[in-house]
Amino acid sequence: MKxxxxxxxxxxxxxxxxxxxxxxxxxxxxxxxxxTWRMVSATLENDGITELxxxxxxQGMLVFTTDMHFxxxxxxxxxxxxxxxxxxxxxxxxxxxxxxxxxxFFGSYTVDEQGRFTGNYVEGSTFPNWVGSERSSRELQLRxxxxxxxxxxxxxxxGRVSAxxxxxx
Length: 169
Known about the structure:
globular; single chain; 17% helix
C-alpha cells in the first residue's frame, strides 16, 4: 500500500473514531428548554383563589440536559429551619411544613421538531405519587420567550400552578 493511502486511511479512521465517541444530540435540535432555569415567581389558582405555593420568596431551579433529562427542585425560601440539625430529626409539624412548601423530582422529557417542550416522564420525586407520571403538553406547558420560561401545570386533583423562570447565564 502506498504511504499516501495509509495516511489517508488512518486519518479517516481517527475521524470516525472521534466522531463516534461524541454524545449524540436529539434530532430535534435546537432545544428551546435545554439549560438551567431559576424560578422567580409561582402562583396556584384553585376555585378562584390565588395562593403563593412557594411563599413570598420562592427558590427553585429547573435543569434540562441536552441528553433529554431534567431535574426540578422548588422550595419556599422562607421555610423555617428545623430545630434539630439532623436530617430526619424534624417534628411532625416541621416535616409537614417542609413537605407542603417544596417539591423535587427528575426524569426525562421530549421536544418537538422546533425544539418546544412536549412532555415529561417522572422517574423519581419527593412526592411519591408522581413517580411514573407521564405529562403531555395538555397538563404541563412550558413556553420560552427569550431568557424567560413560563410553566403552567394543571394538578391532577385540581388547581393550576403558574411559574416564571429566568435562564441562568
